[in-house]
Design brief:
Glycosyltransferase, 310 residues
């Protein structure tokens, strides 16, 4: 069973007899990535299949499964059905605003529902992107607000009236070295990677967005560790997603290969029995597994000429 929690230390995992250790998994060639992706998706589907509460709060799991090679399987569709039913109840209960002070909840829900075949513009009569037009509410949440409003709108095939304002907000949060900051002071790998994911959707038509994405990408390449990772599975996964959103194969991006070690190699050091761990040596962690599966999805989709969100 996947352990809950976000980024916490759940203790050391004890590999089952005959299972691969994280170090052994790290040595797997890219050719075996597809099998790891399938195994991770299957484990997550099995976990959710017995959970009657699949709904709000499960968006990352749903996004990861929907983007995977098992995304169209009967088992996955059964999970989507329960997720959709529970989301409909909550959206109706809250009048289309899942959280007054966290518009990112509407953004994540819009992405997950869209990826499972539901139009986020019409869920129980509510348009989930309406809240994302509220600039004050979105910006009040911090830079995460504009980032996920942009990703959700692009993923849903929509154009927000507030789009120019959010793009400007995002680029103002970027330092001269290319990093995007959460606190206005310190460059943050996760925030910078997510910013690239948002900017990528507009880079073809907006030169400023393209320039900001390129600068952020260069900064991210400079932060990569010798083992190909960023210190934990989630940060490594977000960088992989960023490169994938730019339309490149994250496992083959030359500026993200350190001494022959790629981003995929970096992610695989967190592979453990049943999923992925937050840090090396930790037990399997739900958020690490969700985001790592999204990253594996992005690599597979890149090889097929696609991306996870767009």
């Amino acid at each position: 069973m996947l352990a809950g929690g976000c980024g916490g230390n759940d203790g050391e995992a004890a590999p089952a007899e005959g299972s691969q250790t994280q170090a052994e998994t790290a040595a797997q060639p890219q050719a075996q990535m597809a099998q790891v992706e399938k195994e991770t998706a299957a484990a997550l589907i099995e976990e959710l299949s017995s959970d009657e509460e699949v709904g709000p709060g499960y968006e990352w799991s749903i996004i990861a499964i929907a983007g995977s090679s098992l995304g169209d399987s009967p088992e996955a569709r059964t999970v989507y059905q329960r997720f959709q039913e529970n989301m409909r109840l909550q959206i109706k209960r809250t009048g289309g605003v899942l959280s007054e002070d966290r518009p990112t909840e509407n953004a994540k829900a819009a992405i997950a529902l869209h990826m499972t075949g539901i139009d986020p513009a019409d869920v129980e009569g509510y348009d989930l992107l309406d809240q994302l037009e509220d600039e004050d509410a979105v910006k009040e949440q911090g830079i995460n607000g504009p980032i996920w409003a942009l990703i959700a709108s692009a993923a849903s095939g929509r154009t927000l009236d507030a789009e120019p304002s959010y793009l400007d907000e995002l680029m103002q949060a970027q330092s001269e070295d290319g990093a995007v900051t959460y606190d206005g002071k310190t460059g943050d790998v996760d925030i910078t990677a997510m910013a690239v994911q948002a900017l990528a959707a507009f880079a073809d038509e907006n030169e400023d967005a393209a320039g900001a994405a390129a600068a952020a990408r260069d900064w991210l390449a400079g932060q990569q560790k010798a083992e190909g990772d960023y210190g934990n599975a989630e940060s490594t996964a977000q960088v992989i997603l960023a490169i994938g959103c730019l339309g490149e194969d994250p496992a083959a991006a030359e500026d993200f290969v350190k001494d022959g070690t790629s981003l995929l190699d970096g992610l695989m050091i967190y592979r453990t029995d049943g999923g992925f761990s937050h840090e090396k040596g930790d037990a399997v962690n739900t958020m690490a597994t969700e985001q790592s599966l999204c990253a594996l999805d992005a690599i597979r989709l890149a090889e097929e000429g696609g991306t996870l969100y767009y």
